[in-house]
Amino acid sequence: MVRLITHNLLACHAKGCTTNNFPLQFKDVSIELREAEFNADFLKGLLPRIEWKALVDAARQLGDTSLPLEQPEMVDDEFLKNLHHVLLEMHIEEGAMVCPNCSHVYAISNGIPNMLLSEHEIA
Amino acid sequence: MSRPELQAPPELYYGDTEAKKYTNNTRVQQIQADMTYRALELLSLPEDEPALLLDIGCGSGLSGEILDEEGYNWIGVDVAPSMLEVALEREVEGDLFLQDIGQGFGFRPGSFDGAISISVLQWLLNAETSHPTSSPPHRLTRFFTTLHSALRNPSRAIFQFYPTSDDQIQLITSIAQKAGFGGGVVVDYPNSKKARKVYLCLFVGSGGAQQVPKGLDGEEEVGSEKAKFEARRERSGKKTNKKRKGIKDRDWILKKKDLYRKRGKESVPNDSKYTGRKRRAAF
Ligand SMILES: C[S@@+](CC[C@H](N)C(=O)[O-])C[C@H]1O[C@@H](n2cnc3c(N)ncnc32)[C@H](O)[C@@H]1O
Ligand SMILES: [Zn+2]
């Protein structure tokens, strides 16, 4: 149940891993699509918080090419519908997220990522 | 019996059996729901604006189900796998993380519009090993610092918890302050042995202009909890499950996947037996 909205907010939190620690890279993932109710205001409120390039890359990695490479200045209905689908309807169920910096592997099982660190990784 | 947090680490205390027992107990359900409503009240988010919330120590989703009901998007973290498994079974809407909050968060700055935490913080007051990173002050510091950064400015985080002494409250608030939070403690029904509840209200930003809310007072006898809970539900006037629509059928999903494949994406996952799994229709 990691959705791309969540993935887009998440950086590695291992000790000393403070640069180049975002976005986590998907590895061997399987996804499930589930409908969520569309809410334009929620999406608009979220947009300023989104790292656009990371979102587009992640979506493409999962097979969705509906988002433009550059965040559009004009937000129209079709764009919001696509954004909605990418952010809230694609669920990563299995696989892993790997830190691009320290290579820590956050395994995802049953939709739940394991964010636990071992003792030497705790800041 | 002593308090749960004195008996065993949370992921062991809330094993399969206890996780089910806890979640199925109607009295627990009622109390957790009631405290979640109160926490939302104290969070005082702008009316009718959608928000993304963090549920800290979300457990089996008793607090999260109220967030679903109120139409919030949320992310929940908990250290007990058995509790999260029950949350999955109950098909809460939030994304779930297996995470020890004492190790801190990795969320990017300004990710959340607010945070709630129901009956969790007391667990951070107990050391689990002799490793320096496991001392309560170290864990609390890590927790509050990374939480502060994950919240937007301005915003709030509300914690209902069970302190056993004023020293504990003192320790927690002083560490939260050092992490940058303003705020204070609200005590509801301070004179009632059963109804008394402690809420730590933490504020991010707005130059200390945020006022610590007043605690509830007056007659709040045991047994009226249910009435209070239901009254609040009605008062909130929001439709149950307002953000839930029908479940998309398998056809729709397969069509979408087909579309991806046609666009030449090899990485589209194969149809699993879970595709289009029915979600629980009602709370
Ligand atoms: C009494 S339950 C409350 C669950 C939920 N908030 C509710 O209202 O039903 C306390 C929860 O705190 C979780 N918890 C305790 N210590 C924790 C920690 N260090 N990190 C994350 N979760 C923790 C436990 O696993 C348990 O699920
Ligand atoms: Zn890392």
Protein architecture, described:
Chain A: This is Trm112p-domain-containing protein. Chain A: GO terms for molecular function: protein heterodimerization activity. Chain A: Interacts with TRM9. Chain A: One of its GO terms (biological process) is rRNA (guanine-N7)-methylation. Chain A: InterPro entries: Trm112, Trm112-like. Chain B: Belongs to the class I-like SAM-binding methyltransferase superfamily. BUD23/WBSCR22 family. The complex is a heterodimer of chains A (123) and B (283). Chain A has 123 residues and is an alpha+beta fold. Chain A has one domain: N-terminal domain of TfIIb. Chain A has four helices and five strands; from the N terminus they run βαβαααβββ. In chain A, strands 1, 2, 3, 4 and 5 form a five-stranded antiparallel β-sheet that branches. In chain A, a hairpin with a 2-residue loop joins strand 4 and strand 5 (112-113). The longest helix of chain A has 13 residues, at 77-89. The mean pLDDT of chain A is 96. In chain B, helix 4 packs across helix 5 (62-69). Chain B is an alpha/beta fold and 283 residues long. The longest helix of chain B has 18 residues, at 26-43. Chain B has one domain (11-217): Vaccinia Virus protein VP39 (Rossmann fold, 3-Layer(aba) Sandwich), CATH 3.40.50. Chain B is built from ten helices and seven strands. Chain B has helices at 4-7, 10-13, 16-24, 26-43, 62-69, 81-89, 136-150, 166-178, 225-236, 250-262, and strands spanning 52-56, 73-78, 95-98, 112-118, 151-161, 182-188, 197-204. In chain B, strand 2 (73-78), helix 6 and strand 3 (95-98) form a beta-alpha-beta unit. Chain B has a seven-stranded mixed β-sheet, with helices on both faces. Classes of the chains: A alpha+beta (123), B alpha/beta (283). At the A-B interface, strand 1, helix 1, strand 2, helix 2 and strand 5 of A face strand 2, helix 6, strand 3 and helix 10 of B.
